[in-house]
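Researcher: Predict the fold of acetate--CoA ligase.
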Amino acid sequence: MAPSPSRALQSDADPWADTRGMIGAPGGVINIAHEAVDRHVENGHGADQALRFLGKNGSRQVFTYSDLSEASAKFANILVSHGLEPGDAVFSLLGRGPDVYIAALGTLKAGLVFTPLFSAFGPEPIRTRMEIGNAKVLITTLQLYRRKIAKWRSEIPTLKLVLITGDVAPDDCLSLDQQMAGSSSKFTTARTGPEDPALVHFTSGTTGKPKGVVHVHNAVLYHGFSGKVALDLTPGTIFWCTADPGWVTGTSYGIIAPLVNRVTIIVDEAEFDLDRWYGIVENEQVEVWYSAPTAIRLMMRAGAEAAKPYDLSSLRFLASVGEPLNPEAVTWSEEVFGQPFHDNWWQSETGGIMIANCPGAQVKPGSMGKPMPGIQAGIMEHEGDRLRELADGEIGELALKPGWPSMMRAYLHEQARYDKCFKDGWYLSGDLTTRDQDGYFWFVGRADDLIKTSGHLVGPFEVESALLEHEAVAEAGVIGLPDETAGEIVKAYVTLNPGFTPDEDLERDIRGHTRKRLGPAVAPREVIFRNTLPKTRSGKIMRRLLKARELGLPEGDISTLETDET
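Model: Structure tokens for acetate--CoA ligase follow.
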């Protein structure tokens, strides 16, 4: 799983020197769990609040850094007592609750590899990922086990241990509560090295099986650095990352980055409810809020009036991730919160934020921002067997110079697929972007989403942003469909805000708005109304799925799809 020498950290000037000096033990030993929790306890901050869990039923549970240290040590001891060894794979299938945080830290502390899964996955996506990842351990709930695991559990030959949260477990499983009660709160953290595997995150492929993205313990350097620089995380900050822990953001910036920076993390067990969310910001005095464009659009849909009953003055920094943030959402947040949501860009493969609108920087609505310190980004075009770097204003594939600590080290069992991500000394992201003369990057679309119509290259994000400017449109997804004359035509799918009725007049009005805004060559030829659009659990609208359904093509991997109504 180790990278080739050319892809290891290779900068003479170390932009992460401050973080490197802050963490890590002598002799090249580095362990994410130690840097996130035990280091703070050793330095006299064990009584600081680490986590505040807000239950769906109104319960509230607080964990200090000492509490987390002891609980994760107990979990690590459970793993070791059952014969698990460094490098073995531990999977979690849990919602937002204390157990997933303890399991993640305990797994890393024991030198094992942690893989979180969405609790909303169906049986087959869970099984596929566990097979690819050679799962040795699964931690889940009794309900999820009975519904999604029990029928095929014996068919995963590598699976040795299933831990069930609570004090009741089937005969072929163990109760986590009972195991924790008999486990010691003392544990000597594994002496993991910088390149030892720590995390595997599965990301959907457009076709075929999902990809298992491997990250190492050295990633903690960049987690800590980027949390501080891009999200303004400082000791004592009250921070709320709304991402599910089954998604890479929920691990990198919901667990690791904030704990490394010794903040207090808010975790809400419940699903999105606007009044509940605004109430949490007010009651918990949230200072930094990291959410997704889908949630922000739901806030917009409810209107500014919905926020007025709440005191949201504690907020000092707002950030967004998951898909590009439309310009109107940035403008709206300035009006409602007195400050913009700051968009940033990264991928499961990058392991951390690469391009960001950082605190204190000017925000250009609709822009991803600028590369983080130490990150070299370029806009590339494939020219035969080589890459050619494009000038400002040109559209090409976003590429990054390899070498940052949280860069993926492998796709599980897919070396050729991994190698294809690198060319001529660059990591190729697959995202099309452009860069303006001020150095700001602007998202255009995935390379395979780009629409070629009547000689024009159309990025779906540009069209979707124009659609969202119409007062009736809540969400939009845009695709290109084959056309004998134009090559492709632009087709849009939208959901509506409350108070609007889908009819021909509204469809004509929306198309007319986009024609005025974008011109007839770029505007959609047709607008289709939907109750919902297919989205991943992380909030990204799945354009490829819209296109596959339209053309009757294979849908590919849809394991991360939310239930959608078409």
